[in-house]
Design goal:
This protein has 559 residues and is an alpha/beta fold. It is 30% helix and 26% strand. The protein is globular and about 65 Å long.
């Protein structure tokens, strides 16, 4: 930036004319016409497929969906436990004909999560599989009515059709209402190409294309709804064609995953290798071995990783005293740097340009170090200073949504063409999200510097936050799960110490209903896992108290 800023405001640097497409079917037609090819490799299921094969399959699925008489711009299809490539083909099929799409991330207690999310989405069609960890389809089937009625499920009243994806577990569904996914293609055989063309041409750019649930880390999970043109524009905001191989360590149900999978779907990458996050026992060690072996075997040049995945790679390389025989060109972390030492280890062991990014489900990308001048990039990466993406307008604002002077702390607010349309069926929450002039209020505190870079300082209204493997976690959801245990009266979560590899180590302080009684740690952690606690949310240590120290207003004292 040539002229130093005086106000905390950076406008977008690309205009709307930079976005060539507003509808997916037009983009897909050009990809097929120009034969833009990308090879996609799934190290979990051992599948290898080209994006052109996926697009050909998506047309068959689109015709099948047309036979089900779904209404474009209104009706939804939901996926539970499907493989990455089947999910991508079904996403493309739904997008072509204007049907809303959601790939749900279901974790224990599965039946409760399925019921909550399906009731909110009200999909007429579900495609289900067991998922990488198993049990997802089984959990769904347990909610279906066993006796013949006019509905598939009284608990899930919107459902009209269920199809089974056998990618993870090949079995013939025994429930009368469930058909194999191949039947969806068979349904489409009676739909002509002309009928498909007519359906595609009725799609509007503002039709909701994707529904995605937030993590719920700062409250209850919300269902975000994003318009078709916002998703399509993702393919126009990259830094040029990515002709390098990438490894992802993300779930297909996240927005970040779809960003890179979409690049592959429309042929902007040479090869994409996907490795989903592991939830096995001791996942970091297994993950590190698999990732390092894949990088070496496939001669990976570019990594798109979560912090936990990068940590697993670093730990495995150090522990086994091995090296990557070829230099990497670029390493992009989807999270904040845990420590300077963490970054130094990454740069020393993996080489290449190391960048971090900042975003949220509602906005996708907000800022990254990728766009910072190379002479300043390393320092900015270490200090977690970011530059807004070219398509985003970013400001630091006060409580009245007025732009602050430079280097004053306020809320990070963003205006972006990639923003969500709404929180589904939550009008009040949607109104709170947007400022009167159309900026999304992130809820994150930040500060902007004269060179246009900015830094995320934390949440505006919640100091009880931790950074674990580069991901932000809040005390409330963790405390809520622990407090469900029948022998616990109260639970408070505080930070213990920082770890160069993990980040913040969580300490759980417990007040048992029966004084002096301690619950075996393995039993408590198993209970928390069964009630939806992620591994990264698990406490590093558990302390028991007869009473909690407090201030005059009865707020707990941090230990």
């Amino acid at each position: 930036m040539e002229t130093p800023l005086t106000k905390s405001f950076v406008p977008k640097s690309i205009s709307d004319t930079a976005f060539k497409y507003r509808l997916f079917y037009k983009l897909f037609d050009d990809v097929k016409k120009e034969k833009r090819s990308c090879l996609l490799v799934n190290m979990d299921t051992k599948e290898t497929v080209s994006n052109l094969e996926i697009l050909a399959q998506s047309e068959e699925y689109a015709k099948g969906l047309l036979r089900l008489n779904l209404t474009p711009g209104i009706d939804n299809i939901a996926l539970i436990g499907c493989s990455t490539f089947q999910a991508l083909a079904l996403f493309a099929a739904a997008a072509e004909i204007g049907i809303g799409f959601a790939h749900l991330f279901i974790h224990p207690p599965r039946e409760e999560r399925i019921t909550t999310q399906i009731k909110l989405l009200a999909p007429k069609v579900i495609v289900c599989g067991e998922g990488a960890g198993g049990h997802n389809a089984s959990a769904l089937f347990s909610l279906l009515d066993s006796e013949p009625t006019d509905k598939i499920s009284g608990k899930l009243p919107s459902l009209e059709h269920i199809f089974y994806d056998s990618s993870y577990k090949d079995r013939s569904p025994t429930h009368k209402s469930v058909k194999t996914l191949y039947k969806l293609k068979e349904l489409g055989e009676t739909v002509s190409d002309d009928q498909l063309t007519e359906a595609r041409e009725r799609v509007q750019p503002d039709f909701v294309c994707q529904h995605l649930f937030t993590s719920g880390s700062a409250g209850h999970p919300k269902c975000t709804s994003r318009a078709q043109e916002a998703i399509v524009k993702l393919t126009s905001v990259g830094q040029g064609p990515l002709q390098t191989t990438m490894v992802m360590n993300m779930n297909v149900d996240t927005m970040a995953s779809y960003v890179y999978l979409l690049y592959g779907l429309v042929g902007l990458c040479g090869t994409i290798i996907t490795i989903p996050e592991s939830y096995e026992e001791n996942p970091m060690k297994n993950q590190g071995k698999i990732l390092v072996e894949t990088i070496i075997e496939k001669k990976v040049e570019q990594l798109i990783l979560t912090m936990s995945a990068l940590g697993a790679i670093i730990d495995y390389i150090k522990e086994n005293k091995i090296s990557i025989p070829h230099p990497l060109k670029r390493v992009f972390y989807s999270g904040q740097i845990i420590s300077y030492q963490f970054l130094e280890d990454g740069e020393q062991l993996l080489k290449g340009v190391h960048c971090i990014g900042y975003g949220m489900t509602e906005l996708i990308g907000i800022g990254a170090t990728s766009f910072i001048d190379s002479s300043k990039r390393k320092v900015c990466t270490k200090e977690a200073r970011l530059l807004p993406y070219p398509f985003a307008t970013v400001r630091i604002a006060d409580e009245q949504n007025k732009t602050l002077d430079i280097e004053q702390i306020g809320e990070i607010q963003v205006n972006s063409p990639l923003a969500i349309k709404e929180y589904r069926l939550e009008e009040e929450q949607t109104q709170r999200l947007f400022s009167p002039d159309g900026f999304i209020k992130t809820g994150d505190a930040g500060i902007m510097f004269p060179d246009g870079t900015f830094k995320v300082l934390g949440r505006m209204n919640d100091n009880d936050r931790f950074k674990i493997y580069g991901k932000v976690e809040y005390s409330g959801p963790i405390e809520n799960i622990i407090s469900l245990h029948p022998e616990i009266s109260q639970a408070y979560v505080v930070t213990g110490k920082r770890n160069d590899w993990i980040g913040d180590e969580i300490t759980c302080c417990i007040l048992a209903k029966e004084k002096s009684k301690k619950i075996p740690e393995d039993m408590l952690l198993e209970f928390c896992k069964a009630n939806g606690m992620y591994q990264r949310q698990q406490p590093a240590r558990i302390l028991y108290f007869d009473e909690f120290p407090s201030t005059h207003n009865e707020r707990k004292v941090k230990l």
